[in-house]
Amino acid sequence: MSRPEDSLPPDLFYNDRESRKYTTSSRIQAIQSSMTQRALSLLALAGPSLILDIGCGSGLSGSILSSVAADQGGPHVWIGMDISASMLDVALQREVEGDLMLADMGQGVPFRPGTFDAAISISAVQWLCNADTSAAEPQARLNLFFSTLHSSLRRGGRAVCQFYPKNDHQRAMVTSAAIRAGFGAGILEDDPHTKNSKLYLVLTVGGRDGVVGMVRGLEGVDVLEKKPRGKKKEERERKGSKAWILRKKEVMERRGKVVKNSSKYTGRKRGIAF
After folding, report:
1. Which residues pair with 162 in a beta bridge?
2. Given this model, what pLDDT does residue 225 score?
3. By mean pLDDT, which of 16-25, 73-82, 183-192 is the weakest?
């Protein structure tokens, strides 16, 4: 079975017909509800929160956020962003309670720093792994998305992104971009090794300890570690320095260029002459 993201960009795939078909499908509604409830349980919000719904579509997940009972920490206020105008039009017709924004998450999350308490994304992030045009670079779009999402969350904020990677390479692309943006990150897989497998990327603003607290007691959670960086050079080559000049001359020699011989005066600054 072909994947939607392999056929067309999301704003073209989810036209008026597909948007209505998606929203009215009882099967899709049940799956969306189950995954949204799972994401909420992973967020473990203590009280009513301002939540960003990324790839909100027709507002199926948002309706669940609005209906959380007070004794369960709700109801939540939410803002949804999606690239499909047709999906957002269906959301307006459904009279969802959240505010809606037409936006491409691959161009960044367009909100001020520290705006949201939490964020969720259901079945959307995998779209960023595909290049819709020759100018679109998937890793760059993922990096921009996660860096701006990190900025839009308050200190201690949380996010859960459910996504369907096509392969291990796409999974690594997504998780590495999140870690590079500064998130503490963990991966939880429901129904592993089955066709119903679902991946949840659990993120916190504030580092690894926050993720450990969120997923403590849950089985099958893989807390992701940031790869240690190599040691910085004690001294970078300054343009015009002796080391810089010698390296440039070596490169030019390898290219067959004629260069002057080096001496003890190479790279030495001349005094000011009057």
Report:
1. 122, 200
2. 60
3. 183-192
The secondary structure of residue 162, as a DSSP letter, is: E
Taking the CA atoms of 226, 227, 231 and 236 in sequence, report the sign of the dihedral they define. Answer: negative
| Residue 192 amino acid letter | P
Ranges of beta strands (E only) in the chain are: 50-54, 77-82, 99-102, 116-122, 153-163, 183-190, 198-205, 221-224
Amino acid at 271: G
Q: In Å, how far are 6, 51, 88, 130, 172 from 168, measured between CA atoms?
A: 16, 29, 31, 14, 6
Tokens 């997504």 — which residue?
174
What DSSP state is assigned to residue 14?
S
Reported confidence tier of residue 35, pLDDT bands at 50, 70, 90: very high
From edge to edge, which strands make up the β-sheet containing 116-122? 99-102, 77-82, 50-54, 116-122, 153-163, 198-205, 183-190, 221-224
Strands 99-102 and 221-224: unpaired
The values of phi and psi at residue 117, to 5°, are -80, -30
